Amino acid sequence: MREHSGEEGSEGCPRAADLLGWSLPEYARDVPSLDWLVERLRSSRPDWRLLESLVRYDAAGYARRVLDRTDACELLLVCWLPGQVSRVHDHGGSSGVSWVVRGQLQETRYAWGGDRLLPDERSAAGEGDFLLERAETIHRIHNASRHGAVSLHLYAPPMVGMTRYDASVAQTLDAELALRGVLRPPRPPGVARVGRRRPPRAT
Asked: What is the reported pTM?
């Protein structure tokens, strides 16, 4: 699994109004709640051809791209190849919503147990699903499928930084899940499963 996060700026990107059918609010007072962000994204009328033209995968790790940003919020596009995973992280005090627009993603949320972060909840999100990320959310996203995934993220206020927590937490979780048979290395696309041949029956 690879965690490198490639990031591109918004230069040359179409505005949110072109992508989603509405403009990002300009001022923090125009974003009353996380529920408001969810409903705003849910009511979008995406230009799928325009969005598709922005999809870029990076073999080194999941690729983040800021599409639009105001003082109130920012819109990001994140592209995940099979097996790519984020580190355990928060969002620097920002709240947000993630919309899986292609493929499937797994989210693992963490909670503090004393001075340690412990896996608390795991869920799967498919195409069309939303993941809520509150200011206190600490989580990890993983594309455990055999296909690429794409997600749109809307944060308020714009993120000024993310705390990335000890990588050993994620490695411990991987080991636990692998023992349960949850995480299996994805088969490369187009590679057929090789079956075991039976020896010919004697006549």
From this structure: 0.77
